[in-house]
Design a protein that fits this description.
about 725 residues; alpha+beta; 5-stranded antiparallel β-sheet; 3-stranded antiparallel β-sheet; 28 strands; disordered C terminus
């Protein structure tokens, strides 16, 4: 049950809300707010969430009250401090605009900074120069400036191990890793997996609703609210992989989701999709994106097809072959006709059986005159070996010769005479006149052979049995011959089929290369206005020059791609823009405000972490040269304006980064310590533009009102804006995050 103090606190906050100083859209959810506020207790995060809820409705006094409550229980709550416009400097929390005065009040710090400026004036801009400046700053206690120069060192020479170590990195598996960044990457990976499961279920349900005429409009309205960057992989798996009917929906979703991931998927649709309407929409969306997010990878799609030469298979002695770009990648050999493949790939050869007396064992076990004998051989008796050789030379006298050789044997005679041969399996038919020996040889295997001798009794019956055996043996040989012939044909067919499959696969790969090349060239021409065709080297040189020289961006103009490049025939505005602040735009540094074009590497600029909302002065690691850019002037209510390029990003509360060209009158933008509304948006033509790159920052506060904008780095939108208000209901219960 809420305490009396909690109830009084809610009453005070609600009374402050009724006396708010700014108009609000309404007090929807006030009952839920009261319930949540009563249960917030001593939980700092709960009060911060309630402060964001109040801020979103213009209840500024109530917001400040909740932020004060949060800091009472956690004085170092960085989100609460950031929302109040406070930054930690020299172990103290100060208003962001009080830091410069604090620095000037410290004579020793002023002297160190003056000496630092002299060192910078004397130094160059090489990796060695910045490494030396980093060491100098560390020696004199300017740690933020030191980190900025070490970062500038590895930007110029990534092989500088000393600079990496000074930045807190260590070598692992050929890479430089930082424990903080690794832990953050693990959290992001876990967050992405959880988000994928959630979005997969939700988007699958919405895709099913698109097939229902009754639900289609409601589903489209819900899809229009999807802005989470973590939904991007699910959009691809649900709508792009779901089939061509959903590709346009996927393109719309990627267009409304910010981030490099959605940009790269738009580029894939613009290059490879076969639907001209989908390609048009994807290109229109890419025109409004930072070109650094996709131009480099798209240029890499410009490739020459592989030169494929094939040599057909012309028989066992003339193998086929495939050459790729002059290199032999595979040969295809047709097997010889007399090679028959038995189970497990063993070769089978039909051949007569020959006895090697030195390799055969003889051992007699029985004998009786005029009877049939059963014998096992052993190599220990040379007389038996000679007798067996004589029997083979004269089959008609074999029983008598063998009987004489074993006349001294003691055991009673069995009926049959058997031979065990330990080298290969044989089937042997033997009569009193001659030995008919046939064999099937499996090299390397051990088998047994049977040799039978009979007396003169029942000759006709035994002749019939021998005829049956001969017929069965002939059938077996014919069956084996047919099987071997079929195996040979199958083996030849497999070789030819593999040859054709490999050739067709390479040709299909070439067609994909050609398709990607033509699509990439069409996209590049559409967004840049250049006509370098399919020449990858020309595009690469231009892209390197564009990044290095800060050349002027092309003006917006009507553009139709040449039919030579291929579909689609796009008629869109070319908008290849940079992220720039107009010359003269002031930035907030620890030593006061200065124009953006006067900023140098090592200066510390005020920024705000888009993940937590924390304010901090961060070192500059790179600056851009001046470039003529198209500009948009944003005029703010209650005074102040800012001039930026169309691609420069500003922070819209509750949403995140948006390009300047999407800002409209009435939109609210984030400033240090609060929000401000836009009163006018005007295009003013070409201006000189500059920007900076901050160390581990990504954002900076600029202008008289300290408007939150992005630096010159690639925009990585947070999964959830730090200033997104909670959804409150009467059942809301404050829980620590």
């Amino acid at each position: 049950m809420p305490s009396v103090a909690s109830t009084l606190f809610v009453m005070v906050v609600v009374s402050q809300a009724t006396a708010r100083t700014a108009p609000v859209p309404g007090l929807e959810g006030l009952d839920g707010y009261q319930a949540a506020a009563a249960k917030a207790g001593k939980i700092p995060d709960a009060h911060v969430r309630l402060a964001l809820w109040c801020e979103s409705r213009g209840m500024i006094a109530a917001r400040d009250t909740h932020l004060a409550e949060s800091l009472k229980f956690n004085p170092s709550h960085v989100t609460a401090r950031g929302l109040l416009g406070q930054v930690r400097e020299e172990a103290r929390w100060l208003r962001f605009d009080e830091v410069a005065a604090q620095v000037q009040a410290d004579p020793k710090l002023v002297a160190r900074l003056a000496a630092y400026d002299r060192e910078r004036d004397l130094a160059g801009d090489s990796a060695d120069d910045h490494l030396a400046l980093g060491a100098w700053c560390a020696k004199h206690g300017l740690m933020a400036e030191s980190r900025a120069h070490y970062a500038a060192t590895v930007r110029r020479d990534p092989a500088r191990a000393e600079a990496w170590r000074k930045l807190g990195y260590r070598a692992r598996d050929g890479r430089w890793v930082n424990e903080t960044e690794t832990a953050r990457a693990r959290r992001q990976f876990t967050e992405a997996k959880e988000a994928y499961r959630s979005w997969a279920t939700r988007l699958a349900r919405l895709r099913g609703g698109l097939d229902s005429p009754q639900r289609r409009d409601a589903v489209k309205a819900e899809l229009a609210k999807v802005h989470d960057p973590l939904a991007t992989p699910c959009v691809w798996s649900t709508f792009v992989n779901g089939g061509a009917p959903y590709h346009e929906i996927a393109t719309r979703l990627f267009a409304q989701i910010n981030g490099p991931d959605s940009t790269s998927r738009l580029a894939l649709l613009a290059v490879f999709n076969s639907d001209a309407a989908v390609q048009d929409r994807a290109v229109e969306a890419l025109v409004q994106r930072d070109p650094r997010e996709y131009v480099g990878p798209v240029i890499s799609l410009l490739r020459e097809p592989m030169r494929i030469v094939t040599r057909p298979i012309r028989g066992p002695g003339s193998p086929g072959a495939i050459f790729v770009d002059g290199v032999l990648v595979r040969e295809y050999y047709e097997p010889l006709p007399d090679q028959f493949l038995a189970p497990f790939g063993r070769q089978v050869v039909d051949m007569p059986w020959a006895i090697d007396p030195g390799a055969v064992a003889y051992c007699f076990t029985g004998l009786a005159p005029g009877r049939t004998y059963s014998v096992t051989y052993s190599p220990n008796d040379p007389a038996v070996v000679r007798a067996f050789q004589q029997a083979l030379a004269n089959p008609a006298g074999a029983p008598q010769v063998l009987a004489a050789a074993v006349a001294t044997a003691a055991p009673p005679p069995p009926v049959h005479f058997n031979v065990t041969v330990p080298t290969f399996p044989l089937k042997v038919n033997q009569d009193t006149d001659r030995a008919i020996i046939s064999s099937r040889l499996f090299p390397g295997e051990v088998g047994a052979a049977s040799l039978a001798f009979a007396d003169d009794r029942d000759d006709r019956e035994k002749e019939r049995e021998r005829d049956k055996e001969r017929e069965a043996a002939e059938k077996e040989r014919e069956r084996a011959r047919r099987e071997a012939e079929q195996r040979y044909k199958d083996a030849v067919k497999r070789v030819h089929d593999q040859f054709q499959a490999d050739r067709l696969s390479l040709e299909a790969y070439n067609r994909e290369i050609e398709r990607g090349t033509r699509g990439a060239a069409a996209l590049l021409q559409a967004v840049t206005g250049r006509e370098s065709g399919l020449d990858r080297d020309a595009w690469s040189r231009w892209w390197a020059d564009w990044n290095a020289t800060e050349d002027v961006a092309p003006l917006a103009r009507e553009l139709t791609t040449a039919a030579l490049i291929g579909p689609p025939n796009l008629r869109i505005k070319s908008g290849f823009h940079r992220s720039r602040l107009a010359a003269g735009t002031s930035v907030w540094t620890t030593r006061g405000r200065r124009p953006v074009e006067a900023v140098r590497i090592g200066d510390r600029l005020l920024g705000q972490d888009p993940r937590t909302g924390a304010l901090a002065y961060t070192g500059v690691v790179a600056t851009t040269g001046g470039a003529r850019v198209e500009a948009i002037r944003i005029t703010l209510e209650e005074g102040g304006s800012l001039t930026l390029s169309p691609m420069a990003r500003v922070w819209r509360p509750e949403f995140g980064w948006v390009p300047t060209f999407r800002v409209k009158v009435g939109d609210q933008l984030r400033i240090a310590g609060g929000r401000v509304s836009v009163s006018a948006v005007d295009r003013i033509g070409l201006v000189a533009g500059y920007n900076v790159l901050l160390f581990d920052g990504g954002s900076l506060l600029v202008g008289d009102r300290a408007l939150l904008v992005h630096d010159n780095g690639i925009v990585l939108p947070p999964s959830k804006p730090f200033d997104a208000p909670p959804l409150l209901s009467p059942k809301s219960v404050a829980k620590p995050r």
